[in-house]
Structure prediction request, 78 residues.
Amino acid sequence: ELAALHPCKHIPLHELQERVGELAAWRDKEVICLCHHGIRSATARNFLAAEGFTHARNLAGGIDAYALDVDPDLPRYL
Prediction:
C-alpha cells in the first residue's frame, strides 16, 4: 500500500495459483508483474506465461527501481 502503482490488481505470489482466474480477462493483454525488487514478480511472470498469458511481463528491479528511475515521488521502503 505504501508504494502501490495504480491501476493495479494486488495478488500476493503465494495466492497466485489459486487466484489466477481473476486475471482471465487479461490473458491476451499486457500484464505487468511487480514486487519490491522484481524477484517474486519474475516468478509470477513465469507462472502466468506457463498459464497462457502471452504478454506477461516483469518490472525489472521492481517498484524500488521504478521509484528511483521513473517516479521519485513514490515512497521507497526497506
User: Anything to note?
Assistant: The chain has three helices and two strands. The beta strands are 31-33, 56-58. The chain has a mean pLDDT of 92.
